[in-house]
Structures are given as structure tokens and as C-alpha cells.
Amino acid sequence: MTASPAGSEFDLIARIRARAGTRDDVVLGIGDDAALLAMPPGMALVVTADTLNAGVHFFPDVAPADLGWKALAVNLSDLAAMGASPAWCTLSLSLPQADPAWIDGFLDGFCDLAARHGIALVGGDTTRGPLSVSITAMGHVEAGHALRRDGAQVGDEIWVTGTPGDAAAALQSLLSGAAVDRALRARLDRPTPRVEAGRELLGLASACVDISDGLLADLGHLCQRSGVGAQVQLEQLPVSRALAGFRPQLRWAWQAGGGDDYELCFTAAPTRADEVQAALDFAGVPGARIGRIVAGQGVQALDAAGAPWQAPRVGYDHFG
Strands 287-294 and 157-161: what pairing? Predict the structure, then answer.
């Protein structure tokens, strides 16, 4: 990590370095101008980056540990969508002031999730400014075997992991001042990146995308890259116990367009359905078939009667 002469910044970096640890594939980590990393033979490097800004991606008073977890989770979700094994990451923090207690809390959540997925913190930056977190995560996948968005074929089935809509329901409750179900709030604050599922889907899924902006929006990105269309059966969307009590029209809006799920939406040939289910079971990740890839363009959501349903919002757009 780079640093200015300010002693307080050096202190923060030292705290981060102490928590990062060392391992053999990190030839040179925190403390130099850049990191030196050792790639396993026969693997392709997978790189992703995300920025979370206070007031846009999280409430300014969020618990530091929850922010540390989520900031890493959104990047791990991108690696999962490529079928990659997490390896290394960098962390850049913009902070209004040097706050050791806040850093320690942030690192509690960050390092907890990092340890679960074997990802090493190898560098980054700290600076003074509005609260913002930027992470670049790197992983590796067998060369030529990465999951991509451009492989869906007409006739493929559409699958989704987990229960989309939970995070959006929690956010809506918070914004309206209503009481928030604890299970829904946990899905908003600490999403579960589906890394194990992504690895197990290699060779089975024809295309894959992670759900960050909303199911219909992100499935639309997959369809655009693949040159196909999609039909989603809303009644087949998996529902958590906490979300099941809401009326369908309201629930569908969160499930289809809410975003912040960090689940995987993927396609696979119908003949691979049993293998896909076995792979998800092995990964310990719930999954459900929710529709089919069709000829044409765009994503069409259908209600229980098979009639087209118009989502109040297809997904999140930072500049929309």
C-alpha cells in the first residue's frame, strides 16, 4: 500500500498489514509499490473490481464489520460468476479521518469472509476523503474453461441460486422506516457469494452472470451477449420464508428487479439438469429452474397465468 508522510496513515496501513498475513503464492505483498504474485500453471487470471460509496451503496452509519464483509462479497460474487477460485485482492479506502477502531471493525468482517474463501489481501491504498471502499479481486480458473455470459443457447433452461429479492425487501423496509426482518437484513448486509457453486458449474453451465443490479436486468445482459431472449416464470422464483408472506406482485418486484442479491443466474441444457442439481447440492447451494432461453431479444417475465408481467423496475442503473 502506498502512503503519504502522515503518521496516522502509516498506523492504519500497519494495522491492515498485520491482519493480511502472508502465504507462499504472495511473493511480495503489502509494503512495496506493487505486489508480486505467483500464478498456478495452466490457469487463466480472472480480475474484477467494485467500488462502494457511502450514501449510494450503503448507509453512512453501517456497521464497519458488515461493510468490510459486503465490500469483499460483491467482488467474490463476480469471481463466482466466472467459475474462478479466489486468490488475491487489493483494498483502497477513502476515509473522512483516521479511525483505528473503525478500521479494526471493517477488517473483522473483511478478514472473516476472506478466510472462508482463501483470498489474500496483497495491497491497495488509503486516502482522506468521503467514505468509499474499492476492491480489486483476482482469482484463477482453468484456461479455456471460464464461465461467461455469451454461451446461452435457445432451449437452455434458466437457473438461479438462493432466493433473490430478500435484500431489496430489507432495503425497502429501511427506507420506509418499517421494522426489518432479521433474516432479510442479514441478506442485505452480508450477502453470500456463491463461489463453490461457480466452481461446480464449470463444464455444466452454458452461460452465467451474478445478480447485482436485479435478476431481469442481469439476465438481460447475459441474453444480449449471447444473442438470445429469455422467458422467466415468476411463480417459479424461489422464495425465502421471510419473503413468502408478502403478496406476489410486491414480492415479484423485489425478486425480479430489486438487486443486491449476489446470487448466480445461469443457463444449462435441459439434458444437464440432473448434473446441475447434483453440482449445486455438492456445493451446498440451493437452486431452481425459473425459465427458458428463447429465440429473439430481451427478457419477458410471465405471471402464473402465462401473461406478460411488467416489472415496476427492471434493475438498478447508477446513472438512470
Answer: antiparallel
- Residue pLDDT, tens place only, 11-59: 777 888 888 877 889 998 888 888 999 999 999 999 999 999 998 898 8
What are the tens digits of pLDDT across the range 156-166? 999 999 999 99
Binding site listing for substrate: 57, 260, 316
What single string gives the DSSP state of each residue in 200-231? HTTTT-SEEEEESS-HHHHHHHHHHHHT-EEE
What letter would DSSP give residue 41? T
User: In terms of pTM, does the model score above 0.85?
Assistant: yes
User: Which among 232, 226, 283, 225 has a CA at the least distance from the CA of 256?
Assistant: 232
CB-count exposure of residue 221 (10 Å: 0-12, 13-18, 19+): middle
Question: Rounded to the nearest 5°, which phi and psi values hold at 255?
Answer: -70, -40
Name the CA dihedral angle for 255, 258, 261, 263, rounded to a multiple of 10 degrees.
Answer: 50
Annotated binding site for Mg(2+): 33, 48, 50, 78, 125, 210, 213
At 99 the three-state DSSP class reads coil
**Using alpha carbons only, what angle is made at residue 111 by residues 107 and 114, rounded to the nearest 5 degrees?**
145
Instruction: Write out the binding residues for ATP.
Output: 124-125, 149, 212
**Known binding-site positions:** 33, 48, 50, 57, 78, 124-125, 149, 210, 212-213, 260, 316
DSSP 125-168: EEEESSSEEEEEEEEEEETT----SS---TTPEEEEES-TTHHH
